[in-house]
């Protein structure tokens, strides 16, 4: 049950801000899904967005949580999922980033994030961002004598309004890493063998200290092998598609 905060953003009957799936997983992989949920706490009144806007890619990584859960089952891996939307506070952005609590996302004004006070920003940090990363930290601390590889599962929009909605991004999947290429290279080579797939290398996103947080904070600081996997969202629309991607990633990790 979430902590009740003084201002009533989170109610006692709302879901936890962080979920640990398969906590006793025996795999050397630990999975994280920063953008698993599009949930906005009731107290934040949808941040002024419509329900349709909250179903879209600005609020979450569509399909990523399903792939991550299924992959965690295949691997018998522990998976950490964020329980609330990236629009509340983005768990994969440094707190100093203008996109941490973004007032605009892909051209959509997020009214509930406009003109926040420092106290309101700190409250979001304390209620959503810190608990998520604290759980990842505790899991990695407890495994400090084991080999661990950290795999971050994301999905990306086939087209961005700001890039022109007609411009389809070509990659089906992309891999990124920072400084430690082993895992990302392995995944890239394995997926690249499938001629049907356009596989990105540091595409659609490279990992950058300015914009990324999770792998910088948890993998690089501990010198863990790691990779960020980005799957294009139009391939994650059905159960069978998310199952196929989970199996594909599982095979590629062998
Ligand atoms: Zn993401």
TrEMBL record:
UniProt entry keywords in alphabetical sequence: Hydrolase
Pfam families in UniProt: FGase (PF05013)
GO MF, any single term: hydrolase activity
Record keyword Hydrolase present: yes
Keyword Iron attributed: no
InterPro entries to which the protein is assigned, alphabetical: N-FG_amidohydro (IPR007709), UCP029730 (IPR011227)
Range of residues in the leader sequence: none
Protein's name in the database: N-formylglutamate amidohydrolase
Organism expressing this protein natively: Nitrincola tibetensis
């Amino acid at each position: 049950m979430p902590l009740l905060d003084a201002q009533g953003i989170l109610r006692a009957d709302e879901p936890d801000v962080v979920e640990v799936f398969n906590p006793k997983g025996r795999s050397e992989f630990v999975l994280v899904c920063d953008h698993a949920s599009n949930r906005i706490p009731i107290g934040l009144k949808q941040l002024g967005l419509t329900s349709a806007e909250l179903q879209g890619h600005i609020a979450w990584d569509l399909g990523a949580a399903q792939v991550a859960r299924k992959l965690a089952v295949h691997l018998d891996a522990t998976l950490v999922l964020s329980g609330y939307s990236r629009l509340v506070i983005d768990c994969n952005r440094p707190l100093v980033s203008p996109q941490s609590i973004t007032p605009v996302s892909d051209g959509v004004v997020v009214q509930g994030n406009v003109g926040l006070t420092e106290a309101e920003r700190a409250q979001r940090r304390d209620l959503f961002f810190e608990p998520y990363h604290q759980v990842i930290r505790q899991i990695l601390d407890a495994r400090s004598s084991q080999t661990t590889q950290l795999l971050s599962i994301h999905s990306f929009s086939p087209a961005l309004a700001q890039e022109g909605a007609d411009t389809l991004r070509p990659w089906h999947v992309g891999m990124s890493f920072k400084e430690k290429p082993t895992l990302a290279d392995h995944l890239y080579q394995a997926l690249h063998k499938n001629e049907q797939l356009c596989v990105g290398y540091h595409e659609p996103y490279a990992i950058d200290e300015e914009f990324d947080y999770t792998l910088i904070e948890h993998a690089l600081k501990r010198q863990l092998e790691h990779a960020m996997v980005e799957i294009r969202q139009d391939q994650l629309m059905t159960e069978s598609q998310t199952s196929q991607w989970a199996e594909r990633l599982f095979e590629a990790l062998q």
